């Protein structure tokens, strides 16, 4: 494995408290050549986190410490492992300007970043689509159907690809099939191949890369990577760079799902390393 481009840290309020150094030591044991720490960027100050514990992202108070600690580890382990300082940035419909300001502030320090959709807007309310099966079921009642959630998700991911988020907009789009996290309990009634193809065409047109994420493999109601093999084959046909990400929220999560990824996939490294 060349690079794990999607790794979380103890700065994640909903993750483990495993030491940053433990992630690095485990990566070296696994013969991983490099990792990008991609903690959830702080949410816009006026955005109300819709999950009960309000723990979707790191706090603004922790951002400086996060940057400083990763920078120190980059120097300490520079002969053993390539460490990139990154963030996973949430695209939130209606908060594009605030997100641009976040990137303007943090961007100069970053080597790498991912742009992901976790929150969907319906009327004037926001919902975290991957929080739990119970929240997803509640969303079905609000949105009207599983298909309506899928439609909203693909529309929002398209908005994230098209959005002008400034000079530091992430170059990689995160887990574009996250809406399928609970698919075995809440399957859609329609086929969404065309929606995936449209996203891939836009990613190709914008010169972006794709997060090939192993976390879905270990989710009991998903059972496949984000995105699945059929979408990856279409991405390969378009020559879209694929960057493997474990989306690990603990040390044991490093390299998760790697055995279920499409064997014909060729992985790239983040743009700053190429």
What is the strand tally? 9
Count of discrete structural domains: 1
Sheet-strand content, in percent, reads 15-25%
Write the CATH homologous superfamily: Metal-dependent hydrolases
Q: How many helices does DSSP assign?
A: 7
| Reported CATH architecture | Alpha-Beta Barrel
SSE string, helices as H and strands as E: EHEHEHEEEHHEHEHE
Judged by helices, strands and strand pairing, the structural class is alpha/beta
Q: Mind telling me the CATH class? A: Alpha Beta
Gist of the model:
This protein has 274 residues and is of the alpha/beta class.
Kindly list the characteristics that best describe this protein.
274 residues, alpha/beta, TIM Barrel, two-stranded antiparallel ribbon, globular
Describe the structure.
The chain is an alpha/beta fold and 274 residues long. The protein has a single domain, classed as TIM Barrel, CATH 3.20.20. 32% of the residues lie in helices and 16% in strands. It has helices at 20-29, 60-76, 96-106, 133-143, 146-162, 193-206, 229-237, and strands at 3-7, 34-40, 82-90, 112-116, 119-122, 125-128, 172-173, 209-213, 242-245. Strands 1-2-3-4-7-8-9 form a 7-stranded parallel β-sheet. It has a two-stranded antiparallel sheet with strand order 5-6. The radius of gyration is 17 Å and the shape is globular.
Structural topology:
Elements: E1 3-7, H1 20-29, E2 34-40, H2 60-76, E3 82-90, H3 96-106, E4 112-116, E5 119-122, E6 125-128, H4 133-143, H5 146-162, E7 172-173, H6 193-206, E8 209-213, H7 229-237, E9 242-245
Parallel strand pairs: 1-2, 2-3, 3-4, 4-7, 7-8, 8-9
Antiparallel strand pairs: 5-6
Helix pairs in contact: 5-6
Enzyme class: hydrolase
EC number: 3.1.3.15
GO molecular function, one term: histidinol-phosphatase activity
